[in-house]
Amino acid sequence: MMIQQEIISTGVFIDGGYFAKINESLSEASGMVLDISKLLHFVRASIAEREQVPKSCCQATECHYFRGRYRAGAANAKKLLFAERKFEDELIENDVIFHYKHLREINGEIIEKGIDVWFALEAYELATIRQFDYVVLVTGDADHEMLIKKLKALKIKVVLLTGDFGEHSATSKVLSEEAFYHVDLGVLIAEHPELLNKLCNKA
Fold it and tell me: What is the pTM of this model?
């Protein structure tokens, strides 16, 4: 009689500002950007390897993306509208739930308020409700240290997924130390260059 293995559920939470910085650094270095679908497959494979189970037993149960963005008129004026919609198509195709707040620009300075708090509150609330086995945080922001601590208190394994490809996408050491384990795509790709094509597409 075959014993059915339990599904390992994972919640993935992407800090859109940080994700954009990873892509900016990647694009400058290699002309490539991360592909959401490939990234989610990588997450499943990484956890399956850690847990020593088949990849089919590891599911990205939910994926959420948080970002500040311009209102339509401002985005159009800055010629960003098509790129934003194209990226949203990629999110939709991969069942990623996106959460946006409007950016404000004051005296040439871009103001992004409330995204980090929303990110942390949503991640904690959903982790409590869904009872994820793993939570993957794509962020390098030290402000999320307490989020990791709170998730650990729920007995959830927190994976920090970062991409330190340059000064744009540096990761807080505090976050790295708090996480169950830390996956740095910059280090992995440097060690295994073939991963670049497995995770990215041309910019």
Answer: 0.92
